Amino acid sequence: MMHVVFNTADVEVLKKAMELDETLQGDIIQIKDDFSIGPVTDIYETYGYQLRKDWWKEVLHYSPYANQLDIVDDKLTVHQLCNKLNEDKAGNVWIWMGQNARDVCGYYWLMFQLTEFQGQVFILYMNNLPFINEKGGIFYPAYLHEIQPKEFLKAKKLARLITLSEFEVDPDEWKKIGSENGLVRILEGGKKIVSKEVSYYDKDILSVIGAEPQKLLKLLQQFYSKSKLKIADTFFVWRLRELMKEQKLAAKGNWEKGWKDIEVMQMQTVHTESESL
Question: What's the pLDDT tens digit per position in 184-197?
């Protein structure tokens, strides 16, 4: 058995669940890219793949993760997954999904590449399902890693074979999403992904920017403590830089020294010594 997840934190909680239930034992495969953001048009073609890679290179520029771009190779990960399914026709893979855009977009991206393995691919989708949290209360998790390891023993009962109909329809849905050419994708319920403009999160991002300069790292901390949005920190900072180019925000500090050296403020507070993109 193999398990596919879409977040690093999901890997850890699934490992803990395996310690509690040996029937879950198997290789855990993580799809590392976040397909809910960035270009996905012609994503399976060389041109589309390179376009996305170039976009990520720009997003990761100046970030603590800039040197990780070449480490992420989901194409190779899927190639190895397919090889294992080919070698073991009795083997199967479980795709685990939380109710969030990253997981669902990752699922759509993956499905197109697994069409020849109908009958070996299962899905476990935590779609609007209640679980028990650490305090004993009922909650509805958006991400797998929000579920306690012992609750995975209940979650595994949700595993079902992906139908032939889904193998026919879902790849077409992903192709349609790609043709919409939006750089942001949100989940509207079920498996319905809707494309949005790249500025979709700007209002929420701008809401934490004050008139006085604030350290970028503090802004990130503020945003994640107040907002329910699960925006990647790299995307957050990239949007800040884009808003600076549009002269809606400004920054002090040297980007070459990394995020820790940057202070961000509303544009009208900028003085001549301020540096802006």
Answer: 999 998 999 999 99
